[in-house]
Design brief:
The complex is a heterodimer of chains A (128) and B (506). Chain A is mainly alpha-helical. Chain A contains three helices and no strands. The chains are: A mainly alpha (128), B mainly alpha (506).
């Protein structure tokens, strides 16, 4: 079963990396969100996936039973999902702003930063 | 266990910027009030970090558990000499940058939320220096990333958005690698507390998951710190930000990556005696060489300096590659020297812009005649960066190169010396073009540089001079820091308390 999960995570990560290598900004953002989803699943798998009881302390008990799932990976994933979501949201807003100012989402045509003080022209931009 | 006031002192470098960030956000509409809060906050931060340094020098490693959850279950905050030193340097740098910003920040940038974001960044940086929990370190990295992106896009010029996009994507990928490394490490060891990891890992069987985890850590921190061949986002974005932001990024952010790499590869994994060592050596050589080559072709002061960040990171990595106690001490000395010098050079780039109206050195000129004080202030960090005696860079380079020759890695030392030569070339280029030659650009007579700018630059230059002429205290401090890093037992003991450690050893 672990092998199946590993292969699935590998497929998600592979697709994510493929998209990140693209020149289209939107595809890059999709790739990043796929990669972070794959990583979240990896945390799950690393925490030990078993078909056992949820980590809830039974009524009348003081401690968690031994046959329940590990709650820590779930807490980690919750944190990672929130962080990943906010960063992807920021990246999408950034892409929108770039599209508004450059009129393109092709990374080959975004050269405004590289043009500052470039050695290939005699006079660079004076943009602050 | 340290008493209560000590424990609070460990948290204050985090709480002060957090409170300042919240207050400045509340005072969003009043830039004047924000400025006052920022001044008070930064002064308090410098004072508290100095107190923290004194505490660590007196008592050794100090630890604090959050919510009274005993280690390894709760999140620990741990201060040793290295983290205390880094907190002190970063708060001094933040103060200098803010003083410079009084004259440099545009109202549009302040109204866009400069102060809350700036303090947010400091929260992330100090959190990363102080935490003793590897997942918590990841969270601080993300705090740093999101606030850094906010600071980078403040002005919304085309170049800034462009740079921010490159910065965002590569840094997101780097934190994803970092998180994967944590996941694999947790899968093998079942703990996230760094002190606990340092205790558990030596008894763990080597496995493929551990090897992959350590390589992913190297990759994740490598992108953050700007290692060859992963550094290309850095010179593509740092030069676009406003100069205060660039200076803080240049001084601090890559160094947080380096700090994390140092922490993980001394406490958790070993560089010595593993296959990573040659790899780090080759990466360090590449980082030094390609950074300095990139700088040689550029004409924008900020881009030249950005490439130099990369090349200087290579020198610091040499320390990790050799990884003896002396090498780590040299690297720690180098980090502290470099944060001050590099941030100062970026501030000087801002002053050059103010005086000559351009960042492009081909178009400026005449500054030596026009503002001789600025010329002298430029020479101090520039010569220091190049490693000319008696400046602090000379001592830093001397310590590092000395270690490489002692440890039969002479080829690394040779590359370091060659890169030093090319660094002089770059600094000479800025000097000749901006200061020496006749004015060639938009302004024939340079404008006066405002006092706050000169004060910030002068203050950092004074620190550089102090390190230059009296390096012994800092060398002794770096030696002590390296010694405590080489011996994880003190770190573990501070987190778990003496009694539990004794129980573990039985």
């Amino acid at each position: 079963m672990n092998l199946v999960f590993s292969l699935a995570i590998a497929a998600i990560m592979g697709a994510g990396i493929y998209l990140v290598l693209s020149r289209n900004v939107m595809r890059i953002i999709f790739g990043v969100s796929l990669m972070s989803a794959g990583t979240n699943l990896l945390i799950f798998l690393a925490g030990g996936l078993q078909e056992i009881a949820p980590p809830v302390i039974e009524k009348g008990e003081e401690v968690l039973g031994t046959a329940s799932a590990n709650p820590l990976p779930q807490a980690l994933i919750l944190t990672a999902i929130v962080i990943g979501f906010s960063l992807v949201a920021f990246a999408a807003a950034l892409a929108l702003q770039v599209y508004r100012s450059d009129g393109t989402i092709d990374t080959r045509e975004m050269t405004a930063a590289e043009d500052l003080g470039t050695p290939f022209t005699t006079g660079g931009a004076t943009n602050g | 266990m340290a008493d209560q006031s000590d424990a609070i002192l460990v948290l204050l470098p985090l709480l002060i910027p957090l409170a300042a960030a919240a207050l400045t956000a509340v005072l969003w509409r009043s830039p004047r009030a924000q400025g006052i809060v920022a001044a008070v906050g930064l002064a308090a931060l410098v004072a508290v970090s100095l107190l923290l340094l004194r505490l660590v020098l007196e008592e050794g490693v100090v630890a604090k558990q959050f919510g009274s959850w005993a280690a390894p279950f709760g999140v620990s905050f741990v201060v040793d000499r290295l983290s205390a030193g880094m907190v002190v340097v970063s708060s001094i740098l933040a103060l200098a940058a803010a003083i410079f910003g009084m004259a440099d920040l545009k109202t549009r940038e302040v109204r866009g939320g400069f102060h809350p974001l700036f303090f947010g960044l400091l929260v992330g940086v100090n959190g990363a220096f102080l935490t003793g929990d590897i997942f918590n370190l990841y969270v601080w990295f993300e705090v740093m990333l999101i606030t850094a992106l906010g600071l980078l896009t403040l002005g919304r010029t085309k170049a800034r958005l462009d740079g921010a996009l490159r910065y965002a994507v590569l840094n997101l990928v780097s934190t994803i690698f970092f998180l994967m490394a944590i996941a694999l490490l947790y899968g093998v060891t079942g703990t996230l507390n760094m002190a606990d990891l340092a205790r558990v890992l030596p008894e763990t069987e080597p496995s493929a998951a551990l090897t992959i985890s350590s390589l992913l850590f190297l990759l994740g921190f490598g992108i953050k710190a700007g290692f060859f061949p992963l550094f290309f986002w850095l010179p593509a974005s740092y030069h676009t930000a406003s100069i205060v932001v660039s200076a803080v990024f240049a001084g601090l952010l890559t160094k947080v990556g380096i700090y994390a790499a140092f922490r993980v590869f001394t406490l958790i994994f070993e560089v010595e005696g593993s296959g990573i060592r040659t790899m780090v050596g080759v990466l360090a050589a590449g980082t030094m060489l390609f950074g300095v080559f990139g700088a040689a072709t550029q004409y924008d002061v900020r881009r030249i300096l950005s490439f130099h960040i990369v090349s200087q990171i290579g020198y610091i990595m040499l320390g990790l590659a050799i990884s003896t106690e002396a090498a780590m001490a040299a690297a720690i000395f180098y980090i502290i020297h470099h944060i001050i010098v590099k941030a100062n050079l970026f501030l000087l780039a801002g002053a050059i812009y103010r005086a000559s109206g351009t960042f492009d050195v081909r178009k400026s000129g005449g500054l030596m005649r026009g503002s001789p004080l600025l010329a002298i202030l430029f020479l101090i960090p520039a010569l220091s960066l190049a490693g000319i005696p008696p400046f602090s860079g000379f001592w830093a380079k001397f310590l590092i190169v000395d270690v490489t020759f002692r440890d039969e890695a002479a080829w690394l030392g040779a590359i370091a010396l060659f890169v030093g030569l090319l660094t002089i070339f770059s600094m000479t280029k800025i000097w000749m073009e901006a200061f020496w030659k006749a004015p060639a650009g938009p302004r024939t007579t340079p404008r006066a540089v405002p006092r706050p700018m000169l004060a910030a630059i002068g203050g950092l230059a004074a620190i550089t001079l102090a390190i230059s002429f009296a390096p012994e205290p800092l060398i002794a401090f770096a030696d002590g820091a390296a010694r405590s890093m080489a011996d994880p037992a003190t770190y573990i003991a501070a987190v778990f308390g003496e009694t539990t450690l004794a129980e573990v050893e039985q």
